[in-house]
Structures are given as C-alpha cells and as structure tokens.
Specification:
- This protein is of the alpha+beta class.
- It has one domain: Cytochrome P450 (Cytochrome p450).
- Helices cover about 50% and strands about 10% of the residues.
- It is built from 15 helices and 10 strands.
- The chain has a 5-stranded mixed sheet, covered by helices on one side. Strands 4-10-9 form a 3-stranded antiparallel sheet. Strands 6-7 form a two-stranded antiparallel sheet.
- Strand 1 (about 35-40) and strand 2 form a beta hairpin.
- The termini are far apart.
Length: about 400
C-alpha cells in the first residue's frame, strides 16, 4: 500500500436507517473513493465507492468475476475467513469469458422478450390473487412479505423454470437458510446441497417429460450436462426469487414512509417506470460486487496489484452526488435515475432485470389501486430488517389498509 493512502478500512455494514447505506461509504467516496481495505482473512484489497469507477470496473475484463480468484470474503461473519471454491458448473455469475459467455448465451436464448411478454397476464393473475387472499383475511392487516412480496417472484420463477408450484416452499426455505449469515457452515452447505438435489430430480423429470419452460428449453439444446443445468437453474432460482422479493418489500416500506412520494405515484400512475428506477437506485440490497485484478493496473491513479480483490459498492455508487446531484440521498420519484448499477453493468449485468422491473411494476400498480389507505401497521422502527442476510430487506412488513 502507498504511504500516501489512509490506513485500511473494514467493509462498513451498519446502516444509519432502514434505507440508507452505511455513513462511512459516503465519507470514503468523498475523501478516498479507492480505499485500501482489510478483509477478515487478512487479505488487503480495495473498496471502491465512486460511481465512475464502480461502473467502469464492472465492465473491465482486467478485473475478474471468477469467485475462486476473489476468494477473500469481505463480510465479517463466520464464513469471512474461509476460502471460496470455484463456481459450480453452470453457476456462471462466478465465471469469466469464455465459460461465462457460453452459459449466458444459452440462458439469454431462453430469456426472450416473447417469453416475458407471455408471462404478463399470468403475473397479473398472481398479483391479484395475492391481494384477494390478503383481503379475504378480514382484518385489513397483513404481512406484506409473507403474503405478497415473497409469493409473487416465487410463483413467477416457478412458471418460467417449470418448477411445480407445490414445490416452491421446498426451495424457498433452503434459499433463506443459505443467505442467512447466522447459518453455520454445516447448515449452509446442507441448504445448498438440498437445492441442487431437488433441481437434479426436476431435470431428470424434464428430460423424460419436457414442457414449455426454460429448463426444458435448455435441455432441448443438448449442450449442457445435468450438473450444468442444475447450476444454471440454481442461479436463476436465487436471482429470480431472493432479490426481487426483498426489493418489492423494501420499496413498499420506502413508499409508505415517504407519503409525499406515494401520493405522487398515486396521482401520476404513469410515473411508475421512472419510480422503479429511482427505487432501484435509492435502496441498497447488497454490500456490493466482488472482482479480482488479473494484472497490475491502476484505478483513479491508485496502483492495484494483480491478485488483489476489490469490493465495488453499488450502494455508494448509486448515491454518488457527482452522478445524481447533491440530493442523491433523497428519494425522488421524478429523478432521472438512468445508469444506476443496481443490476450491475457490463457482461455480468443481470439477465432478469426486465422481468424484475415487470414484477415491480405489476405489484406496485395493483397494490396502490386496491389499497388506497395503504399504511404501516406498526411504527417504522418496529419493522424487522434483514441485517443478518446477504440480501438486505425486511423480515416482515406489517401493513394495513
């Protein structure tokens, strides 16, 4: 490390509020946007907090996404000092080209606009049925997470992949356990193995009786082993369920605690697409992305050695005043939030981003239309937050209408 650089920092994790990233990230972005960082296992790498550098490095092939290269976990939790193994076959989010390109091409061929468009009527049915069930309870109160934000993406990804709806709870519980930072190594590995075991069984059934779904479509290409198919399906299950479920719940939490913004969206429903981009920018779901330098280089004039890991703070980048103005820490549904990195950027940008946007649009539109008196049923400080999970959100969101 250069003598002119400050002492290495640890990855900040304590949020000052439900919707704001750690305060230290903004301080680093202003004073030292490429900051030396201590990892729990003793590795010294870098924490990147400025928008231009985060966006640039996400697309820079000099910085590898291979998880066995950036095997120094940044999180201060029981797994923070354990070496990360290479990605499972098919789990292409942790790979570089050409392996990543091959898998992504095959999945993108199934993730077509036509398939997503065909899903829209079914998505609307799912959303309305969730709202019907909430109203049928009779109390005019419900947990939005249990009855709305979790079942919608779970049922949608089941439809896409061809997972029987009755099996959804089997993988939902395992995914929750896998992302729980309080899970021990044995419990986490057991959850991971359970998901892969289930997917292996499903793939066997799909080979015997294919349907009009993504797994069947991938099987029909005859280019992937069962192990690769299971890895791809695992990635799609996790990405298609966990992130969207938490984004929907956290977005509703933000809207009901910013009544001026919710009133604006009610008054101008055509603003919904712009509102979704702002909510994606504003709300921090993860600590960031990981990359490893494959050669000596420099970032914003700071030398980074080959083999050093960098943590790319998506939350800090999305709040960068240089990109989004001096009020970047304020939720403003009229803001032009284009270019945010909530879905990443470059070759690893989320394949399911358009599906996630469609789910959010359908969910918000129906929820505000059906429940004009939508509000929290508890004080904001009593909403339990998912600080104990890799994907941030709320454990429960008690609402009333």
């Amino acid at each position: 490390m250069s003598d002119s650089l400050p002492a290495p920092v640890r990855l900040p994790t304590e949020r000052p509020s439900a919707f704001d990233p750690p305060t230290e990230l903004a301080e680093l972005r202003e004073k030292c946007p490429v900051a030396p960082m201590d990892f729990p296992d003793g590795h010294q790498g870098w924490l990147i907090t400025s928008y231009p550098e985060v966006r640039s490095l996400l697309a820079d092939p000099t910085f590898s996404a291979r998880q066995e290269l950036h095997h120094h976990a940044p999180y201060d939790h029981p797994f923070g000092t354990e070496q990360i193994a290479p990605a499972e076959p098919g789990f292409f989010i942790g790979m570089d080209a050409p392996e990543h390109s091959r898998y992504r091409r095959l999945v993108a061929g199934q993730f077509t606009k036509r398939r997503i468009a065909q899903l829209t009527p079914r998505l609307e049915e799912i959303v309305e049925s969730c709202l019907d069930a909430m109203e049928a309870g009779g109390s005019r109160e419900a947990d939005l997470v249990e009855h709305f934000s979790q079942p919608i993406p779970a049922l949608v990804i089941c439809e896409l992949l061809g997972v029987p709806v009755e099996d959804s709870e089997r993988f939902r519980g395992a995914i929750r356990s896998f992302f729980d930072l309080n899970s021990g190594r044995e419990e986490s590995e057991k959850a991971f193995a359970a998901i892969l075991e289930y997917l292996g069984e499903l793939i066997t059934r799909k080979r015997a009786e294919p349907g009009d779904d993504m797994i069947s479509g991938l099987i029909s290409r005859d280019e992937l082993t069962d192990q690769e198919l299971a890895g791809i399906s695992l990635l799609l299950l996790v990405a298609g369920y966990e992130t969207t479920a938490n984004m929907i719940a956290l977005s509703v939490f933000a809207l009901v605690t910013h009544p001026d913004q919710m009133a604006l969206l009610r008054a101008e429903p055509d603003l919904v697409d712009n509102a979704i981009e702002e909510l994606l920018r504003y709300l921090p779901l993860s600590a960031g992305g990981m990359r490893a330098a494959t050669q000596d280089t420099d970032v914003r004039g700071t030398p980074v050695k080959g083999g050093e890991c960098v943590v790319l703070s998506l939350a800090a980048a999305n709040r960068d005043p240089a990109r989004y103005g001096t009020d970047a820490d304020r939720l403003d549904l009229r803001r032009s939030a284009t270019g945010h990195v909530a879905f990443g950027h470059g070759p690893h940008q989320c394949l399911g981003s358009q599906l996630a946007r469609l789910e959010m649009r359908t969910a918000f539109t129906a929820l505000l239309r059906r429940f004009p008196g939508l509000r929290l049923a508890v004080a904001p400080e009593d909403v339990p937050l998912r600080d104990d999970h890799l994907i941030y959100g709320t454990h429960r969101l008690p609402i009333a209408w």
